[in-house]
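[job 0412] stage=complex_fold ligand=BES status=START
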Amino acid sequence: MNDLKAFIQDNKDRLLQELFELIRIPSISSKEAHKDDMYEAAAWIKTRLLEKGAEKAEVLDTDGHPVVYGEKTIDPSLPTVLVYGHYDVQPVEPLNLWKSPPFEPEIRDGKIYARGADDDKGQMYMHFAAFEYLVKTAQLPCNVKFMIEGEEEIGSPSLGKFMEQNREKLAADVILVSDTSMLGPDDPSITTGLRGLSYVEVHVTGPNRDLHSGLFGGAVANPINVLCQMIGSLTDDKGRITVEGFYDDVEVLSKEERAEMARAPFDEEAYKKALDIAEVHGEAGYSTLERTGIRPTLDVNGIWGGHTDPGAKTVLPSEAHAKISMRLVPHQDSNKITEVFKKHFLAIAPPYVKVDVEFLHGGEGYVSPTNTVEYQAASKAYEITFGKKPIPVRSGGSIPIISLFEKILGIKAILMGFGLESDAIHSPNENYPLVQFFKGIETIPHFYKNYVEMKK
Ligand code: BES
Ligand code: MN
Ligand code: MN
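[job 0412] stage=complex_fold status=DONE, emitting structure tokens
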């Protein structure tokens, strides 16, 4: 692969221009108004797959947003790698905090700024570039399939059914994904764990209409006050979640495993500085990397009710609402957690309000072993391009489809992410350093080569 660096050098600008075209399509999966953009993005991806060497590519309907599928078979007796990515992105609000418009990609200080620059258009496109290189130079060592979906950011609700219906088509030896991050630009790591998720919305209703807060205040329960008290009681002073049964199935790591985790380089001072916080905070007895990697959480994602427009309005609101996400660790089952949460939240509801818990979406966590051919192949690939052996790290994020691949298709995934914590994914000014983009393109072909050689 001595022509790999030259390929990247010679095609840099074109590859970026291509990625920018994709980024310009505002494929926000959670918004009905962007339905057509989802199809446009899917069609665009299909065309690129064919252009880059896929023998077949198609846009497949699901109950939700379409999936793009593509394949190139060189020899059925060779292994098959299925590349997974997602073309949908998160909403962009608040718009006023973006330095350049979210769907007009711009390069500043060596970084691409745009929604999807990292998550996951930028990371996904590294695979398209690597595929183009391998095909063009006749170095593709195995069969490749692509499955690029459009519902990841809303929890992939239609993908379970889609997989059940397309088992044959999706059959592969390994799933290859770039949708995670690494510890730092010079600290390569491979994500070996993802958290599961249970996402609910809670509704607290008081009086049948908004009331004058002077005439009724003090005599009628205020749903916002009540909701805040209820939420406050969900964690104790040790940062433990009080929901009964919540920790029942949590995987307990051995001393040795925790000692191994502690070897990952982590600069707490830099972390605090980057976030502008005086102290980190979380469950007592655990380090920051443990709090995000191996412990479950409960967070309010949004809370609303009453008067929130500018200026004062003296009102005792009729309703209060909150969105709550629980990040789960291996062995916790998201349906079970949703149930215990619901039971607990209804049980702590005082008699002077009505409380309702609505399930939004969920997904299971994932762990991947390090003693497998795919892990070793990925590890060696990073070692070649970064000059350092990557460290296995359990991430706090979730990619619900990864456990579905395992459950429905029986295929393990390898998470070769190149994002950085500073990429501001899901936030204003999301960005992806060009170095990471091109390093990714350089690393991926080595994975293919190592994987096929080591699997023999
Ligand atoms: N790519 C992220 C997940 C991620 C990012 C994992 C960085 C590890 C490191 C993915 O697109 C994502 O945002 N997932 C959602 C899932 C949810 C909407 C069901 C998440 O984690 O909130
Ligand atoms: Mn993603
Ligand atoms: Mn995301």
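The chain has a mean pLDDT of 97.
[job 0412] exit 0
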